């Protein structure tokens, strides 16, 4: 089962300890064959909306930037519980904030 784990931005500034702990966590997940992809996302982005035949493209940043996704990890695990455990470990490393886990369907 594949899961997309996303996290929202926080005001906390990363430090050397955080970088080291995240590097070890990523290395562990990679070695276990669980981590398929990970990365941070630019804060602004581009919003594309459609209404009928009208397509609108708007450059960010947007007022609701705190609701945006700041980073992601795509993992392949045996169960939803395993995805939740990985996300718990991630939150324990990065501290206060919010993450969302969504199952990815398809090939």
UniProtKB/TrEMBL annotation:
SUPFAM superfamilies (alphabetical): Dimeric alpha+beta barrel (SSF54909)
In this chain the YCII-related domain maps to 1-90
| UniProt xrefs under InterPro entries | Dimeric_a/b-barrel (IPR011008), YCII (IPR005545)
Q: Per the similarity annotation, which family is this? A: Belongs to the YciI family.
What name does UniProt use for this protein?
Answer: YciI family protein
């Amino acid at each position: 089962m594949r899961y997309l784990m996303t996290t929202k931005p926080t005001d906390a500034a990363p430090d050397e300890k955080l970088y080291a702990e995240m590097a070890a966590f990523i290395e562990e997940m990679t070695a276990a064959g669980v981590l398929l992809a990970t990365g941070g996302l630019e804060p602004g982005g581009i919003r594309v909306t459609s209404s009928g035949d009208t397509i609108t493209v708007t450059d960010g940043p947007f007022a609701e930037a705190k609701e945006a996704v700041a980073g992601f990890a795509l993992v392949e695990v045996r169960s939803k519980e395993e995805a939740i455990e990985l996300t718990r470990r991630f939150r324990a490393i990065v501290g206060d904030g919010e993450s969302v886990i969504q199952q990815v369907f398809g090939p």
